[in-house]
Design goal:
single chain; about 650 residues; alpha+beta; eight-stranded antiparallel beta sheet; six-stranded antiparallel beta sheet; 26 helices; about 15% strand; disordered N terminus
Length: about 650
């Protein structure tokens, strides 16, 4: 066995360098699955390979690799709950690949086989974590580099990679890939496992003054929407995601509602309903987004009694779903415990007094809400991303001291006042608006659109009220950058390239391309596949019902007519060059024609050996005469006679050869 392994040529050094580069890039691509300390350990392991590559240091022993693997795996298992199952498996796979590279023996091809196959699994993990088109292209390019390493590691020394053959072979698999994609049963993703808690993005479990502000500093994509019905107006684009109804004096915690509901039979105005498709970015949580009250959803989405949409599993990959909603107050289910929406902790005496005063002057919840809005609008309040920090009695401090805040400040203050006045109220977290793309083909919603507003209970339904618009009504129609001061704008993160005029249009085109990639490829789910297969089946049934015998006779008649036309055309359009080629081909077995000879010169020398004129030379002259009549005089009737004379000439040539 050892002798057999030694017979293998050593793996070329450039291949080892490329394998190290592949692992370094894999670590960067898989970084979302790592935390800081594990990322640092894996980076140090990769750096430990450089002395072997640069200074020809010996590979690590199997004992050292196993000892290090045992130590790191033990540490990973201690933090397995924080990492999540999927991320833990990614750690283990990459650790196996790096340690195999550190102990790599150039003449042992079992090492390179194991290393390459582990890295193929890591490429699959990259596609799990990154599903945007740009990242998919990057992973695909890295995969091509891996395939090149795979070939060169087992090829003869000095072999070059056969790019043309590889491309031709790859093209063979395109039809197979398309058929598998369109027809193969769609298996639920095996990677829909609990994700790492620290990897969460978007709205959290708690809402406090400052949480939304931190979220809107990012311009990362949250979701995209394509409407099949009319396009909504700006004041209709309130994307509900979470409800916060428990206040401890500083933070609002979200409600955990596991009671499911079906709103498909509620009465509604058809003019206020929307059909749309949402493509959601992974955020490692279960909540989804919807307008108003969702009416119809498909598995695995579900609707709870608060009319909030969620997924049955953690959203660890980009997902799309079809939805129908109606813009209407959320019905209050019988038996709902609305006392929780009146709960308030002690404190904020001035705010309680203000609420009591407003409640005494305005008897209905609607009037009270309008009064609170008027108080905010006329009270000198300011819309700001960087308000003063609140402490102690936060509501009192906001209403009478800072008077500056973002949407979460106004939402929590209004909810507090309504509850203090005896009106059940709650905060809704979600997103407001979005930016239309590709000539309003779809709506793009980023984290910068994160928003908080209020819902209050009145006449058996939860009605929407946005107190932020009382202070900044232009929030509906303008972007966040247009509303903030210069100091606030400094807090906003953004793509510097997107701010440059020369690149803005290019980035727009790339974003559109990524959207359609998600819509057509990633969004091709079981439902769409079944629809496609059903359409194909119906089409085949329609074709089977046709009178095929009748069509067969028509096709046969057309083919016969085409064949006769072709024969007639060949007969009528026989070119002179075709006659020349035919003539030389018929006589070439007896004498080859020189390239410089004309046909007439060739005939003059055919069988002429300097003797007196014979029957052969006379027959050759007759052939030449008919050839000239056909080619140069254009006498079509000479062709038949020419062919007959050539047959006679061939007989004389055969006799002469005997």
């Amino acid at each position: 066995m050892l002798a057999n392994q030694a017979s293998y040529p050593a793996v070329p050094s450039p291949v080892i360098w490329r394998l190290w580069l592949i692992q370094s890039l894999l670590l960067l691509l898989l970084a979302p699955a790592f935390n800081f300390w594990s990322l640092a350990i894996f980076a140090l392991l990769l750096l430990a390979k450089l002395p072997q590559l640069l200074l020809n240091r010996p590979a690590w022993s199997l004992k050292l690799s196993n000892l290090l693997a045992l130590t790191i795996v033990s540490a990973l298992l201690l933090f397995a709950r924080d990492l999540g199952v999927l991320h833990l498996m990614i750690h283990l796979l990459l650790l196996a690949a790096i340690l195999r590279l550190l102990g790599f023996r150039e003449h042992d091809h079992a090492d390179v086989q194991q290393l390459l196959w582990v890295q193929y699994f890591l490429f699959a993990c990259c596609f799990i974590l990154h599903q945007a088109l740009g990242m998919a292209l990057l992973v695909f390019m890295l995969l091509l580099l891996q395939l090149q390493c795979h070939y060169l590691a087992f090829a003869a020394p000095g072999s070059a990679f056969p790019y043309k053959s590889a491309l031709k072979t790859s093209l063979i698999f395109v039809p197979l890939w398309l058929s598998l994609f369109l027809l193969f049963p769609r298996i639920a993703p095996l990677w829909a496992l609990p994700g790492a808690k620290q990897a969460m993005t978007g709205l959290g479990d708690e809402l406090n003054p400052g949480s939304i502000e931190r979220l809107v500093e990012s311009d990362e994509l949250a979701f995209r929407v394509e409407f099949q019905s009319r396009l909504p107006q700006p004041d209709e684009l309130y994307w509900r995601a979470r409800i916060y109804d428990t206040f401890d004096g500083s933070s609002w915690r979200r409600r955990y509602n596991n009671d499911l509901a079906d709103f498909s039979k509620i009465k509604h105005n058809s003019n206020l309903s929307f059909s749309y498709k949402i493509i959601v970015e992974p955020h490692q949580q279960r909540h989804l987004y919807s307008l108003g009250v969702p009416l119809k959803v498909s598995y695995p989405q579900r609707i709870d009694t608060d009319a909030l949409l969620s997924s049955r599993s953690v959203l660890s990959q980009r997902a799309s779903f079809q939805l129908q909603s109606v813009l209407a107050p959320v019905p209050d289910f019988p038996g709902a415990k609305n006392s929780a929406n009146l709960q308030l902790p002690p404190g904020n005496p001035k705010s309680r007094a203000l609420a009591a005063q407003l409640a005494a002057e305005h008897k209905t919840p609607e009037q009270l809400v309008l009064a609170i809005g008027r108080y905010l609008r006329e009270g000198g309040f300011r819309y700001s991303l960087n308000p003063p920090a609140l402490s102690g009695d936060q509501i009192d401090m906001f209403l009478w001291q800072s008077k500056s805040g973002f949407c979460s400040h106004y939402a929590q203050t209004t909810t507090f006042l309504l509850r203090a006045a005896g009106v059940p109220a709650r905060i809704v977290g979600g997103y407001l608006g979005g930016e239309w793309r590709d000539n309003q083909s779809y709506l793009e919603v980023t984290q910068r659109a994160a928003h908080a507003w209020v819902e209050y209970l009145h006449q058996g339904a939860w009605h929407q009220f946005d107190p932020t618009l009382q202070v900044a009504p232009q929030r509906l129609f303008a972007s966040l950058e247009d509303l903030l001061s210069a100091a606030d704008l400094l807090r906003l993160e953004g793509n510097w390239l997107g701010r440059a005029g020369f690149a803005k249009q290019l980035l727009q085109q790339l974003e559109d391309l990524d959207y359609y990639w998600s819509r057509w490829v990633l969004g091709f789910d079981n439902e769409q596949q079944q629809s496609l297969l059903s359409s194909v089946k119906n089409r085949l049934l329609e074709l089977a019902a046709l009178d095929w015998w009748h069509y067969s006779k028509i096709v046969l008649l057309l083919l016969t007519a085409a064949l006769l036309s072709r024969l007639l055309w060949l007969r009528l359009t026989t070119a002179a060059t075709d006659i020349s080629v035919w003539l030389v081909r018929e006589l070439s077995p007896w004498q080859a024609k020189a390239p410089a000879q004309t046909v007439l010169q060739y005939l003059a020398t055919l069988g002429n050996e300097g003797r007196e004129p014979t029957a052969l030379t006379q027959q050759t002259a007759v052939v030449a005469t008919h050839y000239q009549q056909l080619v140069f005089a254009g006498d079509g009737s000479a062709e038949k006679q020419l062919r007959a004379e050539v047959r006679q000439l061939k007989k004389l040539l055969k006799q002469q050869r005997r």
